[in-house]
Design brief:
With 111 residues, the protein is mostly beta strands. Helices cover 4% and strands 31% of the residues. It has 1 helix and 7 strands, in the order αβββββββ. The chain starts with a helix and ends in a 12-residue tail after the last strand.
Length: 111
């Protein structure tokens, strides 16, 4: 499935996958990946189990920001930021490498 093909990295924007009964709910948890177990330094302050990551969730209303450990399989990748100089490859042809030379960002606010 989609989760098996998706590897998360720090700074990725994710949302919590909702099961069928929650899909009708208007609440959607979105956040930014802070650390990923497979990519974390061994000197870090806390150990993450394989297949888990630390996510800083964006607050809703007065809730502010919260941080939690989440299973990677419960998250859906929304966006991945690129910066100048990043090495990239096509999913269909991972052997062909490229270099990010220009980034255009846009933001859409929906109320």
């Amino acid at each position: 499935g989609e989760a098996a093909n998706c590897r998360l990295f720090p700074h990725d924007l994710v949302e919590h996958r909702s099961n069928g009964s929650q899909r009708k709910s208007r609440r959607c948890w979105r956040g930014q990946v802070y650390r990923v177990a497979e990519l974390a330094d061994s000197d870090s302050e806390e150990e993450l189990q394989t297949g888990h990551c630390k996510v800083q969730w964006l607050g809703q209303g007065s809730m502010g920001y919260t941080t939690s450990i989440s299973k990677v399989t419960t998250l859906r990748l929304i966006d991945r930021p690129f910066v100048l100089g990043d090495r990239v490859a096509r999913v269909q042809d991972p052997g062909s490498l490229g270099l990010v030379v220009q980034v255009k960002s846009a933001c859409l606010f929906v109320r």
